[in-house]
Amino acid sequence: MTEQEFGSGHLAVQEDDWKTGYLSGLQIPSIGLAATDGSTVDLAEGSLTVVYAYPRTSPAIGGALEGWDTIPGARGCTPQSCAFRDHFAELKGVGVERLFGLSTQATDYQKEVAERLHLPFPLLSDSLLDLSRALELPLFEVGGMTLIKRLTLIIDNGRVEHVFYPVFLPERNASDVMAWLSSRNT
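Structure (tokenized):
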């Protein structure tokens, strides 16, 4: 683990462990995921889709788990979600049909976060780890929870076209996705 100075403190940097290289070109399996808008989403369907996976968001009251900031790639779930919220219209402008956040947290918990952060897109729950296990996504355990390491998938017609992993400085992830999609379209 390495640390980089970030703002007023240090942020544990998630280094590339090469656990996502096989994902590019992979067909997404047909798995229904509960969404915060009450729907069930199948990522194998639909055209250009962006899915950013994050470990977990902290509750509005009580904050993060003890030691959370020392876990590489853990810190930054809320800023990442807010950045995708803030770039939502721009993402639509470069052809993104669907945008989702994905975590292993339960849908009821995610609904509070989606409302609190005013997200214009649904969050998806993989609380049973069906998608995570089927895709062999990089996971880690903390506090009795199995969580997804931060990554972003660009999916086109049910096939993974590009993977952002590891994602360092999560608040920049939406901008990086925008830049990649813009270069893809030219």
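The first strand starts at residue 2 and ends at 6. The longest helix spans residues 173-185.
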